[in-house]
Structure formats: C-alpha cells, structure tokens
Amino acid sequence: MPGQKVTISVIKADIGSIAGHHKVHPDTILAASRVLSEAKRKGVIKSFYVTHVGDDLQLIMTHFKGVDSPEIHGLAWDAFKEAAKVAKELGLYAAGQDLLSDAFSGNVRGLGPGVAEMEIVERPSEPIVVFMADKTEPGAFNLPLYRIFADPFNTAGLVIDPRMHDGFTFEVLDVYEGKMVKLNTPEESYDLLALIGTPGRYVVKRVYRKSDGEIGAVVSSERLNLIAGKYVGKDDPVMIVRAQSGFPALGEILEPFSFPHLVAGWMRGSHHGPLMPVGLKDAKCTRFDGPPRVVALGFQVHNGELIGPSDLFDDVAFDETRRLAQQIADYLRRHGPFMPHRLGPEEMEYTTLPAVLEKLKDRFVKVEMGYTPHVKRSEELSGPEHD
Ligand code: F6R
Ligand code: MG
Ligand code: MG
C-alpha cells in the first residue's frame, strides 16, 4: 500500500551464456524464474521480474524484508545455483562464473553477484527505473548520476522544482580501501567530481535528497576482480533510480544516456568503449564482445508489486546515440592494443596481462639514465612514494 515500507532488490550474476560471453540462455531464465515463483507463492517476495542483459542474469524483486535480508539473498543465491545447474547441463560458456564461492553465508555480497537494494516508503505513485549494464564496471554510472542529480544543464528540476532545489547528497565508496564519504551538491560539487572522475576506484553508491534524506538512487558496487584478486569478468553493474514528484523526472533520468560516454570494460574487461543504450532485444554483446550496453526498465511499484516493465531505451529517440556509439567504437578499435583504448596499467593488474609480462621480467637490464626516478602511483593518492 502507498505509505508502507517496501524493498526493491536487483541482484545479478553471470552464470553462463550461449556462444561465449554473449547472451543468457532462456532456459536459465526459466530456471531462476521457477525458484522466484515458488518464493512468491510462499510469500517470501511480493513480486519479481527476471531478465538478462548480455551474459548477466538479472533478478528484480520486491519484498518487505529490508535490504541485506539473508532470506532474500539466500533466495537469489538459490535461483543463480539452479540457473547455473541448467547452464552446466547445456554446456553453456563460463557456467557458474560469478558464483565465486560454493557456500552461502547469509549475504551474496562478496560472493560474486552484484546487488543494488533500497527500502522506501511507497509514494502514492512510485515510478522507478532499473538500469542494467554489461561489459563495464559500477563506476560507469558515476557520470550519469552526477548529471541526473547535480547538473542543472541536464536536470531542469534542480532549478525549477522547489522539492529538489536544495540539491542531493552523494555517498561515494572507495572500492580499493573500503571507505565511504558523503558529499553535498551543489556546494561540494567540485570535491565530488575530483573523486568520481576516477570511476575505477570511487563509485557513487547511493544518492539522497538533501531536504529530507529520502533515497533517490542506489548502485551495485561489487568489483569482482577486487573480490577474487584476479580477473573473473567485469563487474557489470545495476542501479535503481526513483523518478518524479520531487525526484528527477523520467526524462531527466534517461537524458545523460543520450551521450555514449566512455567506460572501462568491453573486450576482456580491458578496454575503454562507449556505453550504448539499447532495448532488451539488443541486449547481447557481439562486436569485440560489446560494445558495453545498458538497458533501462521502467516500473511502477504499487502495493509492493512491480507493475511493468517499459523497455525505455527501445526507442527511436536513442537511435542517434547508438549511431554515435558505433562511430566511437570504430574510432577506438583502430587503436588496437594501444592506450587509451586499452586500459591503463593499474586496471590491467587484474587481467591476464601480468602473466604475459612476467616472462619478460628477467630480460630487462639496468641502464644509467643520469637521474633516479621518483615514482608516485597516481591512484594511491595517500600512498607512499616509491622508487
Ligand atoms: C568481458 C568478457 C569477455 C571475455 C573474453 C575472453 O567482461 O567477459 O570479453 O573476457 O571473451 O574470455 P575467455 O578468457 O573466457 O575466453
Ligand atoms: Mg561474462
Ligand atoms: Mg557480463
């Protein structure tokens, strides 16, 4: 009922796909749906929608158990396990890839799946947008989130709507050091940008309306490589954003995606590429395992129930964005293995490249350069200087 608390949980995992890291098989979607149907029948969840973007299986659920509920996370884990079982039976590629552990211990965070959840008091009408991206990382949503909640050139409501005029608070997570900082916009916009312009490290985790602390957005922040310490696929993120009546309008939420900004991911999680907005029918990765794609599904949450979805990027209004994305893809691809198409060395640490470089290690010989280089690792802002 409007006025009651309801939780929206979006939990995703790559449990295997058809013909490479390309597209989820419908039978695995069915397997996960069966598990969630049964949970709905038993009253564990109120409603659900299962879908996929590229090789990621997406569980969108509503329930009354709050965020981080062991019961809901356990349910998602069971759904992924069942889907992975089917993936193994069908011999799908990378079956079970994101289920990094065999044992579930109350929370899927840290086990491989990506999680975005928010508990809200349902408004009389509660529109939400669920974004799901493939072949990129959680920081890919930093730029659009800034534009949605802090840029008046994108969001007219920041200027015009008195309910948004005070601005928003961004909760930023340092995924390297496990630290969090809250920054207010507009007054701390430049500090915020100084951090989130490094999307591989600083990830916008949540956004709150400053005037009353209401949550407006939440992003999955799991970085698989940092969990596993090695490359196990990119951390294809999901995000939930609330729309309208004192939050950005639907069109203000979608507007930043009309610019196919460069994100890290794409082939082997090792390349920059344009984030291309697509409808579900095009939610499959092909060219150079991409380009990175994002789908947006619009729902109403009513009496705790998901009504919808509407496939928002399946629209001619985004045709030019897609065309520009293809042109950017062409341009970048011509760089082959060179930066900045290929990611920088900090990010390549987590790929299979170090294993290749290892064999050259002993072939380097010391030379006299006439000076001793003092090297500062730019990503370790507070880190030590070393030679
Ligand atoms: C990126 C991704 C793919 C794979 C690539 C190589 O997130 O999943 O680009 O990295 O297809 O995959 P393997 O090593 O499994 O052949
Ligand atoms: Mg994959
Ligand atoms: Mg994926």
Structure in words:
The protein is α+β, with helices and mostly antiparallel strands. α1 packs antiparallel against α2 (70-89). It has helices at 26-41, 70-89, 142-150, 157-160, 189-196, 224-228, 250-254, 319-333, 345-348, 353-358, and strands spanning 5-13, 47-53, 56-63, 114-121, 126-134, 168-174, 179-184, 202-209, 215-219, 238-242, 262-265, 271-274, 276-277, 293-302, 305-311. Strands 5, 6, 7, 8, 9, 10, 13, 14 and 15 form a 9-stranded mixed sheet that branches. A 4-stranded antiparallel sheet has the order 2-3-1-4, covered by helices on one side. It is built from 10 helices and 15 strands. Helix content is 24%, strand content 26%. The longest helix has 20 residues, at 70-89. The N and C termini lie far apart (62 Å). It binds fructose -6-phosphate and magnesium ion (MG) (2 copies). The site of fructose -6-phosphate has 10 residues, from loops.
Give the count of helical stretches.
10
Structural class: alpha+beta
Largest sheet: 9 strands, mixed
List all distinct small molecules, including ions and cofactors, that are bound in this structure.
fructose -6-phosphate, magnesium ion
